[in-house]
Amino acid sequence: MRLLRIVPDDTKFDFMRFRRISFPISAIMSILAISLYFFHGLNFGIDFKGGMLIEVQTKQGAADLATMRATLSALELGEVQLQQFGAPNDVLIRIAEQPGGDAAQQVAVNKVRGALGNQMEYRRVEVVGPRVSGELLSYGIIGLMMAIFCILIYVWFRFEWQFALGAMIANVHDLVLTIGFMSLTRIDFDLTSIAALLTILGYSLNDTVVIYDRIREMLRRYKRMTMADLLNISVNATLSRSIITHVTVTLALLALLLFGGQAIHSFTATMMFGVVLVGTYTSIFIAAPILIYLGVGTGRDTLSSSDQDKS
Amino acid sequence: MLYFTRWKMAAILCTVFAVCLFAVPNFLPTTMVNSWPEWAQRHVVLGLDLQGGSHILLEVDSKSVHKEMLETLRDDVRRVLREARIGYTGLVVRGNSVEVRIREGQNSGQAQEKLQTLSQPLGGILSATGHRNVDIASEPNSLFRLTLTDPAIVERVRQAVDQSIQIIERRVNELGTVEPLIQRQGTDRILVQVPGLQDPTRLKQLLGKTAKLDFHMVDTSVPAQQAAQGHVPPDDEILYSASAPKIPYLVEKRVLVSGADLTDAQPGFDPRTSEPIVSFRFNTSGARKFARVTQENVGKPFAIVLDNQVISAPVIREPILGGSGQISGNFTVQSANDLAILLRAGALPAPLTIIEERTVGPGLGADSIAQGKISSYFGAAMVVLFMFVTYGLFGLFANIAVAVNVAMIFGVLSMLNATLTLPGIAGIVLTVGIAVDSNVLIYERIREEVRGGRTPINAIDAGFSRALATILDSNITTFIAAAVLFYIGTGPVRGFAVTLGIGIITTVFTAFTLTRLIVAYWVRWRRPQRVPI
């Protein structure tokens, strides 16, 4: 049986040369992502913003959005969003946080239940009060920071500090681009988004560490090779693995994206972007080449370094 | 790397087998599993997002606990000074303190001595924390300021949460649901998770009521309507009826008998009107108090007050000596039943506020399970197929390892009695994608070593030993992320962290043991001349 070879043996792409393009691209993308965040903002879900999310299904026939909207706006609950999703009888109702503290939220939910009556099946009701939402947000941010910090420490222990710094820059780059993606697509930013971001962090690092492991091995084996060549060899050697692994992860994510349903849709979409699109690119085009700038192997014999000549 | 002693092999296979066995109860009917010993019954619990149910986070109103503590302290000061016959003026609650001014000419030294008895060491005499519940400051002009200490307030809130948990347990158990979870969260919060509820409205009603029941006399000296508009006599207060229209009642502040003296409450029907009622019974001291009060006040109305609302205000026709009675007041069968539940369970020490609610209906839960299943099957099938197409026989080995991996994840989840949520299923699907990564790392390394000119067996050996270090390094980073997520996450998200973390451990385990074992056996059996990948 002939086996599938996605990446041919002994590839010799000059990934390091590409850094003259990839670094500026990444810089521009990151700036774009940050400005998206600041000027376009994130579509905070109720986890972080507080408020209500009610998923109803009409028991008979398609949902009449116009009537429902009229019924609900008569309750004067401030901003009410209705969104049809999935089947024509499924409606998602979002209601902004009510003024008047935690108890006011419950009062509002009861009003909605009363107004919509028994013609609906209440499939999901989520009410997050003002204090909880504030805490969840700060937990999420602290969690992200903590994860970056712990991973940094770990990479620092296992490698040298330059690697740790390189991994962290790659990391933050991934997170920034993913947040930009979330801002652009208006995906709900909630607790599962934090989970997605943390997972992206883990996997992107997983990839980076595999390449770093190889670089470290090569650094020991080839004492006289220039840094750029050495990095190229390392990335090329792990290229087949990177691609194959990302195909399998993509397949798994694709299954979740297609059949996993609405509840985890934003989660999988974010992961798809972060792990598959950004993560792979980052470890090859950012995490590896940046080691040159961070001074890995500066003590080496670099007299014949073509890289040094150019810069 | 490819040599295993017989013992090692046996140990690996036994471990894998044993862990997988733990997953078995999940796939058998519960009736069958129930006859097994306790440890073998452990199984994966479906999260509320999959089986439907309510997650409700309650917060004890610390402010009202604090206020009540201050009022009790004020009453204590009054009692102590009266008992000692010390005159005072201006006994007030101010901020976090109670202030009292001793009348001129009175012995303020003696007053201080008496007040000092109110300051007790916290946590009884045995605890050596050195904190006291009240600080007493003496100021000029015979003014004393008694301040509640922070540790005392914290301690009281903690007690209130403990009591509330017990009472909530009694209330929720009355709903007859399966396996409700009620636990403390942080200092002043209580998490209630009740699976399988269609409509949480009733649950919320049962949780939200303080259910403080008191019996008061109604003051008939002034018409209530008039008092409500003008001045209320100092020892009275205006309370309104629970049912609409809101009727004001002028009620004495003094509590005749309180709900704490109830021993039982049952819903029933009034034999004359066939209206739903709640009948109750007092304990001995409650019965004695109630008998005395009703004897003294025949012909006068008294008010049954629940959470500061008057349920009914019947006129005492004859002394009630038997220590039992009934409450009627526009009940439905359901509300009479609920009130009986609340009275039996007892009053909450402080009001509870719902600060977070997440309810998933059983319909959505069932849909989520179906979606989880389809996406797992589809994802697994795609990955398995891809691995086979890419690595042939070795791909098959990898697929066996992945299958064992998933079985082991279920085994470990069962052992921990862990909760499986929809994001948790996503974590398993992702693990399938990631678990093959360890095999990919090994196989790609073997390919490389073959290209480097090693003999097949040598290449396989080197491939394993070099790749395993990388597998460990790379998986630890993901594990750190999962651990952090577990720490900060709640509910479904925590479920994801659990499966992701366990998946990483089983992945590394199978890569180091099972995959190696399978390949080693294959090598010994076939003595390959070339590596088929």
Task: Tell me about this structure.
The complex is a heterodimer of chains A (311) and B (533). By secondary structure, chain A is α+β, with helices and mostly antiparallel strands. Helices cover 65% and strands 10% of the residues of chain A. Chain A has eleven helices and six strands. In chain A, the strands form two sheets. In chain A, strands 3-4-2-5 form a four-stranded antiparallel β-sheet. In chain A, strands 1-6 form a two-stranded parallel ribbon. In chain A, strand 3 and strand 4 (90-95) form a beta hairpin. In chain A, helix 6 packs antiparallel against helix 9 (265-287) and helix 8 (227-259) packs antiparallel against helix 9. The relative contact order of chain A is 0.14. With 533 residues, chain B is α+β, with helices and mostly antiparallel strands. Chain B is built from 16 helices and 19 strands. Chain B has helices at 6-21, 30-33, 48-51, 62-83, 108-116, 150-173, 201-208, 224-229, 284-296, 333-345, 362-391, 393-415, 422-451, 456-488, 491-512, 514-526; strands at residues 45-46, 53-60, 88-94, 97-102, 134-139, 143-148, 181-185, 189-195, 213-217, 236-241, 248-252, 257-258, 262-269, 276-282, 302-306, 309-312, 324-327, 352-360, 419-420. In chain B, helix 11 (362-391) runs antiparallel to helix 12 (393-415). Chain B is elongated, with a radius of gyration of 34 Å. The two termini of chain B are 19 Å apart. The model of chain B has no long low-confidence stretch (mean pLDDT 86). Classes of the chains: A alpha+beta (311), B alpha+beta (533). Chains A and B meet through helix 4, strand 5, helix 5, helix 7 and helix 8 of A and helix 7, strand 18, helix 11, helix 13 and helix 14 of B.
